[in-house]
Amino acid sequence: MARVAWRRGETIVHREVWRGVPWCASPVVVVEDRPELLVTYLPEEAPFAFPPSADGRPHPWSGKRAWSGHGVLTLRRPGEAYSVWHVWEGPERRFAGWYLNLEEPFRRTSIGYDTQDLELDVWIPVDEPWRFKDEELLAERVLDGRYTDEQAAATHALGRTIGAMLDRGERWWEDVWSRFEPDSAWRAPSFPDGWEVAEIPAAPAPAAYVALA
To answer: What is the DSSP letter of 44?
Structure first.
């Protein structure tokens, strides 16, 4: 499929796809779309949808009506198995840090993009050391048969690679994004028509990552 390019302010759909079937979706707003970088914004009050899953089990966020708190700015690079979330806190909207969400490399669709969370995450608070999050959740997903031992090992290896990058003081994203201010018109976006039935592209599998079956 030819690359789909989106304009700033356009609403597209982020879908999590489990075993070839969408099981979580939310509308996000395009901030910047270049061949080497996709920047999106999940606004306050963005709704969630939870279609029936491939194996009958609910998505971990099932029942969550909409995103609460400040919106989240997310950076994704093609072929990379993590995204960079920018997080703000408090009534003054203070920048709190970066949340590196390990996930399948995103795949463009006609209405947005697809991915799938890999459970393990890296939290980088402002002026504090980075740390892993949700290691216990990844272990639980192996026990309940959602991930294999091989997939979990690949996710841990990716986490160690990211940790080594951070220990070297390296970050590929620019600090300017931590000062991002959203357009007030972006609040509470709606799902575009056809988001449920858009095509589901095959997941790529970089060398350091084992795709979810």
So the answer is: T
Encoded tokens for 53 = 């899953």
- Give residue for tokens 């999050």: 133
Residue 166 contacts residue 130 (beta carbons within 8 Å) = yes
pTM value? 0.91
In a structure prediction context, what are the per-residue pLDDT tens digits for the chain, which is 213 residues long?
Answer: 567 789 999 999 999 999 889 999 999 999 999 999 999 999 999 999 999 998 899 998 998 999 999 999 999 999 999 999 999 999 999 999 999 999 999 999 999 999 999 999 999 999 999 999 988 888 888 888 888 899 999 999 999 999 999 999 999 999 999 999 999 899 889 998 888 877 777 765 543 444 443
